[in-house]
Amino acid sequence: MKKALKFLQSMRFGMMLLILILLCSLAGSFIAQGKDAAYYANVYGKSSGLLMALRLNDVFNSWYFILLIALLCISLLFCSALRLGRVIRQYHAFPGLANNAELRPCALSPEQQHTFCARYRFRPVKGQSAVYARARAGHFGSFAVHVSLLMLLVAAALALYFSQSNDITLRAGETLPMKDGSTVTLRAFSTKDSAGSLDYESSIDIAAPDGSKREDRVRVNHPVTVGRQKLFQMGYGEEGSLTISNNGQKETLPLTQDDVGSFFTLDGKNGVSFLGILSDANAKDPAPIYALYTADDAYKGKASARPGTTLNVGGVEYTFEELSYTSTLRVKTYPPAAFELLYVSFVLLIFGLWLTFFHVPAYVCFEEKGCRLLSSKPLPDLTQALDTLSKTNG
Amino acid sequence: MMNILFFGSIVLYFLSAALLFSGAAFKKDKLQHTGWYVALGGFLLHTAYVVWRGVVAGRIPMSNQFEFATMLAWGCIVLSIFLRWRMKVQWIATLAVPAAFIINSYAVFLPREINELMPALKSTWFALHIGSAVFSYAAFALAGCGGLRYLLAAKKHSRDEESLMQLDHLCYQLIAFGFLMLTVVILSGCVWAEQAWSTFWSWDPKETWALITWIVYAIYLHQRLRKSWRGQRMAWFAMAAFIFVLFTFVGVNILLPGLHSYA
Lengths: 394, 263
Fold this sequence. Notes:
The structure holds two protein chains of two kinds.
Chain A: H1 2-9, H2 11-30, H3 37-44, H4 48-53, H5 63-79, H6 84-98, E1 103-104, H7 110-119, E2 123-124, E3 131-134, H8 141-162, E4 164-171, E5 175-177, E6 183-192, E7 198-207, E8 213-219, E9 224-226, E10 229-246, E11 249-255, E12 263-265, E13 271-279, E14 288-295, E15 300-305, E16 309-313, E17 316-320, E18 324-333, H9 338-358, E19 362-366, E20 371-375, H10 380-391
Antiparallel strand pairs in A: 1-20, 2-3, 3-19, 4-18, 5-6, 6-7, 7-8, 9-10, 10-11, 10-17, 10-18, 12-13, 13-14, 14-15, 16-17, 19-20
Helix pairs in contact in A: 2-5, 5-8, 8-9
Chain B: H1 2-25, H2 29-57, H3 65-87, H4 92-108, H5 126-155, H6 161-197, H7 205-223, H8 232-255
């Protein structure tokens, strides 16, 4: 049992986990993820069976990948929370240990000692005469890094498994009820911002349960928070409509994605097939157009129509009206505290890394015959500075 | 005029690389000094090009493969200037300048048009995320160069153990800095992804390879704690690890397109 615990605490175990996670990530990046069985059979042939059995088609949701992450959390727990006592003892012990470090033959005068300490930001350690220290907070760098990674993985798991997400497509004037009793009504959707640059923007009216109202805009990179839910701009669609005019009679029909392939005719022979709404790739400004197939006595073939134009096909007028937009919003609910925990872990991780690499604790002890320098990592710039200063003594 | 600045910087980097190599090979200090000043001239032209492009585009020029490549080359030179000035690492230019030349030469073959930013790229995180990537990759590139220099220096009969130790420590410092920057890249990318795509992480190939690169360098940093892993082993590791950076930079875009396709 002790051996097992020791192994779980060891760096070797942590390295093994990192290598295995790396290998899984490599596989997950080279093998297309989340496709159906027919795709893998087509691409990988006979190997597709083994691939699917090993869950290489969905590596990042596989049981072994999740197990590796769980084991990594255990390793991080051992590297952080369970080592905090040792780190604190080290923090208190190092000043005393400086007195036992190797004596460097670099005797410095009091003025040189002062210069060195001022230049390299060393301060006297309380309770330890003649010992100076800098960057003592660096002892906690590794602890901060590992505990922040653990927090990050826990928060990520909470966000992944306990968040809820739903995509809703709204037309102008349609309303979406929210969990806190508010309602969100789409006023308009635009593909350009106020300056005329490309942007996807839904103008919304939010009515709170207490009767208060506010206007807001949901844009890419600018989600809107309503209660504990967030609205994201995920996409948009274009819907058209067709007015058929014949002998003074008119009928207007919507043209949506569901109508692609529909044939509009009055006599069953001459008419227009709707093929979809496309960008006009030939135009300088790729405005959307109606893609069609027209059939009458004069012409059978592909055609197109800009919004607002009318085609006469077989004596019947088909007017393709201006397009209207739909906005696809994602409504997402995060579990309480997951978001905040994630952001705290981000900040702590950056801080911890900075402490670990650039705030290395060092202790120096000046004696008559030389000085002693103690640090957890080699600091060639300090040893060089001490040697240089002592050489000026001759 | 912008093209003159861009190609002018490439020419000067090439000339500088030739002078620096010749100076190193024949141990002529004058050639090396001249090479360095030519490199600085190239850097000035390069900086002028980057600034001009940014002014014309109305944003920091880092939105596609071409712009990122030119910024990466620029970042290599910035780091080498810092290393020469603050840490007196004189030899770094002999490897940094050819690296900048190679990266800019690669950029020549990429589309150079200035296009309007897609809505997903219009974010306050743009500069931090991609700017950190520039300096992260540049640091890893120079660390790889340092590893190469270590291996060449270690082969000499008259090897100076102290300077080898300093070289090894420099590689470590560069990788530590690059690792910190890469962490900023990944975390700022997570925050940005949540705002743009409503999810912090989606195992997009670029994201996955950034994580793979991060893990590789995390292994390097942990292995350094073992004394037997200093010196030559770490030099080889620094060079091999850079291959992962190259694949994240170039390979992913060509072979594994995903949400980051505009990069």
